[in-house]
Design a protein that fits this description.
There is one protein chain. The protein is built from eleven helices and 13 strands. It is an alpha+beta fold. The strands form four sheets. Strands 5-6-4-3-13 form a five-stranded mixed sheet, covered by helices on one side. A hairpin with a 5-residue loop joins β3 and β4. It is globular, with a radius of gyration of 21 Å. 45% of the residues are buried. It binds flavin mononucleotide. Flavin mononucleotide binds next to α3.
């Protein structure tokens, strides 16, 4: 092992240093997340209350930066009220809270599925007290949705995939192409309801431009100090931090733990352009971009309700991808609405929709943009906070 190793960080940063001796000294033995941090993936073990059982499934929903921004109120009998946690937002990379609300849509879809599995139908009313305002600073505790439980509810075949779903944040196997039929199955099985639309490609003609877009937009996020710092501040290193937070970007690799234990993981500033750390971080995004074997996307208007609908559709797509054994990984940089990203925001709309970036919420907007491929190994489940943290009873 080289004395100097460059360590990749999930948040995009890197660290130079650490030796084999360091690892031994730190007792680093493996990179599995602590079992308690990922207990959500066992499902609602020991829960008997119907609504709490459904929430236990819903908290496994995909959500940006694994912030888990959901709060559920169970104080009213026969009703579940979903709110957003105002502290769990991403002001730099998601200044309008669009991605946060997509995560609420994913939560809602799993909640409805988990209720249906128990023979309960849901009447979902979005924004019962009006839509969330545009600016994050104006967000209040108005409900995102009020779900009224009713008799009925048909089990959904995709429910079987809920606890198996993973987002593969790794390079894909470039020796395995995605068959056009697999893409068609994916797109056909989770049909978009108007006004949303789904699209995708595995075509050799289209992949290079989309891979380049991923990489170049990632570069902007890494090079913009405030957006880079947003990721770094949500990075959890080692079993202690992962267990303490059970959210964010969890890293438990022996190298990073060792480097962190030595006080060499500087979380106060982004890596400088041109530094080894920067180059390595770029390499990680470059790897993700280069190994994209296909892309899928969701487009539509961009009202608050459309954002929720997008999340509902997105998680269904990812569950279907799970059933098909193919990986789906959002690369959201190009669709982020901060000023420095504007050229890539424009380009992603030109490439996928053949039209300029939207100027109003009514115009077609790229809501989700994901790469696809076959993971090369097992994809770990990510941490979730304990159920009690989400529930008000
Ligand atoms: C709206 C949205 C945007 C996302 N964007 C990214 C992204 O840009 N990069 C990434 O690695 N993961 C992205 N994700 C995936 C989340 O990081 C992932 O869902 C979260 O870490 C939880 O992991 P899990 O899906 O495996 O449970 C996104 C998810 C959502 C819902």
């Amino acid at each position: 092992m080289n004395r100097r190793n460059f360590i990749r960080l999930a948040g995009g940063g890197t660290i130079a240093a650490a030796t084999a001796g360091t690892l031994v000294a730190c007792g680093a033995v493996g990179s599995h997340y602590p079992a308690e941090a990922v207990e959500a993936w066992k499902g609602p073990v020991g829960e008997t209350d119907l609504r709490r059982r459904a929430v236990a499934y819903a908290i496994t929903a995909p959500n940006s930066h694994n912030l888990q921004p959901w709060l559920v109120d169970l104080r009213e009998s026969g009703v579940i009220t979903l709110r957003t946690d105002p502290a769990r937002v991403l002001p730099q990379t998601d200044p309008w809270g669009r991605q946060i609300l997509i995560g609420h849509g994913a939560f809602l879809e799993l909640l409805v599925m988990a209720l249906a599995q128990q023979g309960v139908a849901s009447e979902v009313l979005l924004w019962p007290q009006g839509e969330m305002p545009g600016a994050l600073k104006d967000w209040d505790d108005r409900p995102v949705a009020r779900i009224t439980l009713q008799p009925g509810g048909q089990p959904d075949p995709l429910f079987a995939q809920v606890l198996l779903r993973r987002t593969p944040k790794t390079d894909f196997d470039t020796t395995r192409a995605i068959a056009p039929g697999v893409l068609a199955q994916l797109l056909g099985s989770a049909p978009a309801e108007a006004p949303l639309r789904v699209g995708g490609t595995v075509s050799a003609d289209q992949l290079p431009a989309l891979r380049t877009l991923c990489w170049e937009s990632a570069r902007v996020e890494l090079l913009t100090p405030r957006t880079m710092m947003e990721s770094i501040q949500l990075t959890r290193v080692g079993p202690g931090e992962i267990l303490q937070h059970r959210d964010g970007i969890s890293i438990n690799s022996p190298f990073v733990r060792a480097v962190d234990a030595l006080g060499m993981f500087d979380r106060t500033q982004p890596p400088a352009e041109g530094s080894s750390a920067y180059k390595s971080a770029m390499g990680r995004f470059e790897g993700h971009s280069r190994t994209a074997m296909g892309f899928v996307w969701i487009t539509g208007p961009n009202t608050r309700s459309d954002q929720i609908r997008t999340g509902r559709l997105y998680v269904r797509q990812q569950l279907q991808a799970t059933a098909l054994g193919v990986g789906m990984h959002p690369m959201s940089q190009a669709v982020q609405e901060f000023a420095e990203m504007a050229p890539h925001f424009e380009r992603v709309h030109q490439l996928l929709l053949g039209r300029p970036a939207p100027r109003t919420p009514q115009e077609p907007t790229v809501q989700m943009f994901c790469r696809m491929g076959y993971p090369q190994g097992e994809v770990p489940a990510t941490p979730r906070r304990p159920l009690a943290r989400f529930v008000r009873t």
